[in-house]
Write a structure and sequence with these properties.
CATH superfamily of chain B: P-loop containing nucleotide triphosphate hydrolases
Number of helices of chain A: 11
Number of domains of chain B: 1
Largest sheet of chain A: 2 strands, antiparallel
Strand order of the largest sheet of chain A: 1-2
Strand order of the largest sheet of chain B: 6-7-8-3-9-10
Structural class of chain B: alpha/beta
Number of helices of chain B: 10
Order of helices and strands of chain B: EEEHEEHEHHHHEHEHEEHH
Number of domains of chain A: 1
Helix content of chain A: over 70%
Strand content of chain A: under 5%
Largest sheet of chain B: 6 strands, mixed
Oligomer: heterodimer
CATH class of chain B: Alpha Beta
Structural class of chain A: mainly alpha
Shape of chain B: globular
CATH class of chain A: Mainly Alpha
CATH architecture of chain A: Orthogonal Bundle
Low-confidence stretches of chain A: none
Distance between the termini of chain A: 45 Å
Strand content of chain B: 25-35%
Number of strands of chain B: 10
CATH superfamily of chain A: MetI-like
Number of strands of chain A: 2
Low-confidence stretches of chain B: none
Largest interface: A-B, 21 and 26 residues
Shape of chain A: globular
Mean pLDDT of chain B: 90
CATH topology of chain B: Rossmann fold
CATH architecture of chain B: 3-Layer(aba) Sandwich
Helix content of chain B: 25-40%
Amino acid sequence: MTKIERNERLIRLCLLVVAFSAISVLAVITIFIFEQGTPIMFKYGFKNFLLGQDWYPSEKSFGLFPMIVGSLMVTLGALIIGVPLGLASAIFLTEFSNRRLARILKPFIELLAGIPSVVYGFIGLMFLIPFIRENLGGPGLSVLASSIILGVMILPTVTSIAIDSIRAVPDSFREGSIALGATKWQTVKMVILPAARSGIVAGVVLGMGRAIGETMAVIMVAGNAAAIPDSILAPVRTLTSNIALEMAYASGEHRQALFATGVILFVIIMILNTIANLTSARQKKR
Amino acid sequence: MKTTGITVRNFSHYYGQHQSLKNLNLDVYRNEILGIIGPAKSGKSTFLTCLNRLNDLIPGSRVEGKILIDNQDIYQPDVDVVALRRKLGLVFATPVPLPTTIYENVVYGVRLLGKNNHQELDDIVEDSLEKAGLWNEVKDRLKTSALKLSGGQQQRLCLARVLALKPEYIMLDEPTSGLDPISTMKIEDSLRILKNDFTIILVTNNTKQAARIADRTAFFLMGELIEIDETAIIFTRPSDERTEAYLQGKFG
């Protein structure tokens, strides 16, 4: 064995160890969460966890339904706000603006992803909450406020993935459509968006993952009442907030119930990621 | 008696600083097949995109001179470009069906006009595919993906989708460059028949193709029109020695 071959082997071995340790972290987290969270779910019954309406940990009542609904509501709200905005900016930057403007604007949109979430929460608290309270009523801390903040937070994800997948549509599609007498907008609507659809969907699902996992900004603007909100102006608590708010002082079964919250969150996010992978795999096949 | 459809006078085209077409003067007659031959980069394709103003899409594109189509100056600001592009259908070198069904590919341009009547669309699909020589091969699978067709079939589909718009002119940019001889023959057969109803401009890399089906042939070189004449004359006794050299394969 020459020296070069020996070096190659050594490097391969090192990379293997590094790669496996990255994956093993994921494995450890998964095992830990499930190990800590599932026993209490078995003890009190899955149904009580998933569908129970009351969260009174001190009285052994661990109903997570309000938080599940809360997470889904703010995530849906974030998508309703973030996806049209993100898609519209992506379409504008790729198809309707000149190249220079796109080169200037795209980094700014991506910069949104670099702002710490506590800053989003703070801005929401300072400007958005008083605005909602004074103009729309309610306490201000609400589903609406969380949705708006999260909608802005997922913008960079949705926009930049949509831009990439719209750019990946071959120019020959555009030319073909325009040569058949289509206007630019008709081309976007009937050719570009359908061709880029699975990429756009993957971006939306990733944005959704970000929205459902976001904690700090949501805690600051959501109000965090553990009850199913009766309007979009009512306060709401999400699964992530539930863990973050109570972990500091929880012990015993309360603590295990928070891990159970983590399990449910984990499963929801796994489902979303699987959907994202499946749609992008389908795109590759085409 | 020949009637003139397209009149090109002192026409030049630029990409930024680069002059891609130099002072062209030529006429295209109604119901003829005009073959355009010449080596790569001689401006043949650019000329087609100037005729339907697809060159508008390219940043830095600029024109001088005049093109009259049915006596309308197509570079006037009040020209309806969308209508112009419907009137001059363009078939590209690489067939690019839109990522949808065969049926939807054919009716794409028609739907843009707002037509949605099923019977009418069905008739257009059958008629266009028939004219493009594709109907018998695909009539049983109109609702399947156009991307599953072979290259030759895709190119005829692209022809059909242009025909569906009922254009007056059909421009083809090296339509058979990537096709096998049998597919090529089918397209050439279609063009011979289509000539009766349409005016056809055929850009081709294959000089023999021009010899086979063009009524007149134009020879482009480096953005210049070297000569244009009856195909028989171009191929037997061209008046410019460069044409002769190209046809004999001395360059290209």
